[in-house]
Amino acid sequence: MKARVLTPELLDSLPPDDPAAHASRRDLQRLHPILGQIRLWHGWFRQNFPHRPPASLADLGTGDGSLLATVLLRSFPKGGHGARIFFVDRQPVVPESTLAHLRRCNWLPTVVTAEVLDWIEEGSPADTCLTNLFLHHLKEAQITRLFSALAAKVTLFAAAEPRRTRLARCGAAALGLLGCHAVTRHDARVSVEAGFTAKELGALWPSRNRWVLQENPVGPFTHFFSAAKIS
């Protein structure tokens, strides 16, 4: 497979209230279950937090926060037990209705408008961090910088990213058959080109002797990486 190619995604440059941005975010909400991301993250939470949610959790590059909110409400039907959630994005668009629903279920959500790298380096208050379809926006040097900051501050990190394979490229090309917006179709294609394969993310994680790393494909389109600190 070819080396990573980073191309700006259209959604990142659109104002939050642009109709094309609304359409693309709706597409992403519709694609989450199709791509298996809800099932993936539900399984991850149940494996790592079988009885109670993490006390503090940050979603990096959260966008509208719909994926995490959906997964948390499904994974922890007894509520959040007062756990803190940080929705971090330089342009977050988390609806107040989502935040209100989480609060009713005893979660304590906070929307953070910041560059992810800066927020982590300045002192993330979360012990657990995850990200969905964010790392592929970054160059290797930026990922290395982010990973170094995370390794100094968290005990558990996980990421679900596009797989950089021919099959994933074909899947992106087929999104028009599902009626997806032109912005979604463009961004899916360039996401795959900037995605990951093999052990590319693990190679960038520091102090690997102090961490348990997992990196593998999940389904045909997702590349999963996690790092758990050895206690």
Name the features:
single chain, 20% strand, alpha/beta, 231 residues, seven-stranded mixed sheet, 9 helices
Structure description:
With 231 residues, the protein is α/β, with parallel strands linked by helices. The protein is 41% helix and 20% strand. The protein has nine helices and seven strands. A seven-stranded mixed sheet has the order 3-2-1-4-5-7-6. The longest helix has 17 residues, at 19-35. The chain is globular. The mean pLDDT is 95.
Instruction: Estimate percent helicity.
Output: 40-55%
Q: Give the overall silhouette.
A: globular
Largest sheet: 7 strands, mixed
| Percentage of residues in strands | 15-25%
For the secondary structure, the number of strands is 7
Order of SSEs = HHHEHEHEHEHEHHEE
Radius of gyration over C-alpha positions, nearest whole angstrom: 17 Å
Count of alpha/pi helices:
9
Give the SSE map.
Blueprint: H1 10-13, H2 19-35, H3 37-48, E1 56-60, H4 66-75, E2 83-89, H5 96-104, E3 107-113, H6 116-123, E4 128-132, H7 140-153, E5 156-162, H8 166-173, H9 182-193, E6 211-218, E7 222-229
Parallel strand pairs: 1-2, 1-4, 2-3, 4-5
Antiparallel strand pairs: 5-7, 6-7
How is this structure best summarized?
This protein is an alpha/beta fold and 231 residues long.
